[in-house]
Amino acid sequence: MAYLTQPDYIKYICSCGQLKPITSLYFCRHCLKIRCGFCICHEVDSHYCANCLENMPSSEARLKKNRCSSCFDCPSCFHTLSTRATMAQPRQVVQDPAAGGDAKVESKQPKKMYYLSCFNCRWTSRDVGIPDQPVASGGWPERTNPFAARVNQLLDYYKAIALQEKQEKIERERKKFNIRGKYITLTDKTGLTGAMARNIAGLPSSDSSSSAIASFVPSQASAEVEELPEDFYTKEVNLNQITSMPQRLASPEWQPSSVSRLHPLAKLLSVKRSQRCRVCDHNLTKPEYNPGSIKFKIELLAYYHVPEVKVISQEPVRAGHKSALLLKLSNPTGHEMTVQLLQPEDLPPPEETEPKSIEKSLERSLNLDKDTSSYKAIERPPRYSVTSRVTSPGVTLTVAQRDDAAEYDDDAQHDTNDIIMWRKSNKLALRLEVDTPAEVQGGVPASAAICLQYSYRNTVPPAAHSALHRDHTLYTTVLIDLGTVSSN
Ligand SMILES: [Zn+2]
Ligand SMILES: [Zn+2]
Ligand SMILES: [Zn+2]
Ligand SMILES: [Zn+2]
Fold first, then answer.
1. Residues 337 and 304: beta-carbon distance below 8 Å
2. Given the DSSP bridges, would you call strands 40-48 and 82-88 parallel, antiparallel or unpaired?
3. Residue 140 Cα, ligand 3 centroid: separation in angstroms?
């Protein structure tokens, strides 16, 4: 694993053309392609609060505006606020002796009271005059958004517009497929009517949506702006009393300008998401539902399936010279792998991916919650330029499978081979050379690309009708950052 502060010296070329380190790539076992965050679908599985680990369905999260009702962040430094308890002495009741009777001091039991405090910047809810609460969780005064009514109006209006457009699109597609005569619309096939589809999507019926459009009053721009106060330019500014922009924008409804108006921020919910290959729709990652768990049910990371390349050491790259390069190659899979180093131009052209079926695309457009823009698996040629070439590829290497027990072995096997410097369980060190042409200018970033052709054994049980076989030859190109070209 790489250090967080260390630059990524090795970048892999994703099937979409992006350059990424192996730790941010996925591997689809069904398409047998590397995928990155840009060429996969991200789906929200569950919402949860990262502080109290309460999880909730998305409908409830939407209702709570994606915020936890019992946890708060500091409005001053955004650290999580802690609940603190103090013993409060209730007010003593002193009876006036003049009113008759003896002077008597009535003392009550002290009572536990709670307030919110930030352990990072020492902000407390008492600073802004929020009264202490008798219960530890919840019950904190809520402020209502002064523009709540208008915001809701706008929301209804946009929902109605979205629904209208969606209906028009479904209508259009239905007509298109009916003319072709081949296709039974999904509505006919499943008995799903337009009204039911709207219901499923949680959208209002068409009558109420058209009334929302009709009754909507658009905002009016006005040239009149409130005057600034007279002393605006002369009054001395006390920076301790005014809020910073991040503090203001953390509560967009109020945007307090003075620190005395800061209010605890209800903590934003986090989501667990699963990721799906956009081409074949299979899951690439799927987390466990329990918010306390950091494990995954499905975790197809490139780190577990694609040979990993690391730079051990290198000589400075000089124009017109050859320099040594030591690379480490590891096989992360449970099967022996043969790896061949090729020049990038020897890479076979990517085969065409078949377009998605019409049925699937209509299914998508009916599913109103999902992204409806149809995605084409475009294999873009990667855009990169290299200054140098790795000279000694063309060899075939055999890399043993991963063996967790071998981690404890100290001895590496030193080969006498020209290329392999040593091998140790599933890793081997390669002695390579980098050739930099004389016309490369000094001072520019030096890099080289190398293509790996590797054998991959698929452990997914093949589906009934698919032509998946177990052993494959796959290709991946890596870009090696070699520092800068030295000037002589
Ligand atoms: Zn796939
Ligand atoms: Zn990608
Ligand atoms: Zn919480
Ligand atoms: Zn704070």
1. no
2. unpaired
3. 14
Closest to 449 (Cα-Cα) out of 422, 475, 488, 419: 475
With a cut of 50, say whether residue 306 has pLDDT above it: yes
d(CA 263, CA 234): 29
Alpha-carbon span 395 to 420, nearest angstrom: 10
390: tokens are 């790795």
Which ligand is nearest the CA of 125, by number? 4
- Expressed in angstroms and rounded, the spacing between residue 433 Cα and the centre of ligand 2 is 30
Beta strands in 53-171 (DSSP E): 55-56, 67-73, 82-88, 93-94, 105-106, 111-117
Task: Give the model confidence (pLDDT) of 421-455 as tens digits.
Answer: 888 888 999 999 999 998 888 888 999 999 999 99
Ligand at minimal distance from the CA of 28 is 1
Residue 42, H or E segment: strand 40-48
Which pLDDT does position 211 carry in this prediction?
A: 78
* Nearest-angstrom CA–CA distance, 417 and 421: 7
In which region does residue 125 sit, left (phi positive, over 0), alpha (psi from -120 to 50) or beta (all else)? alpha
Distance 54 CA to ligand 3 centre (A): 6
How far is 14 from 135, CA to CA, in rounded Å? 53
Q: Which two tokens stand for residue 314?
A: 């290198």
Per-domain residue ranges for the chain?
Answer: 307-484
Closest CA to 377 of 27, 17, 29: 17
Please give the pLDDT value at position 373.
Answer: 45
Structure tokens belonging to residue 55: 């999880």
pLDDT digits (tens, 9 = 90+) for 33-51: 999 998 899 999 899 999 9
pLDDT at 175 over 90: no
Length of the chain, please?
Answer: 488
Shortest-distance ligand to the CA of residue 291: 3
DSSP state of 136: S
Average pLDDT over residues 255-261: 92
| Ligand nearest, relative to CA of residue 120 | 4
- Determine the pLDDT at residue 469: 65
Cα(79) to ligand 2 centroid in Å equals: 34
Secondary structure class of 284 (helix, strand, coil): strand
Per-residue pLDDT band at 331 (split at 50, 70, 90):
very high
Cα gap 80→267, rounded to integer Å: 8
Contacts of 333 (CB under 8 A, 6+ apart): 304, 305, 401, 402, 456, 457
Its sign, for the CA torsion 47, 51, 52, 53, is positive
Handedness of CA 418, 422, 428, 434 (dihedral sign): negative
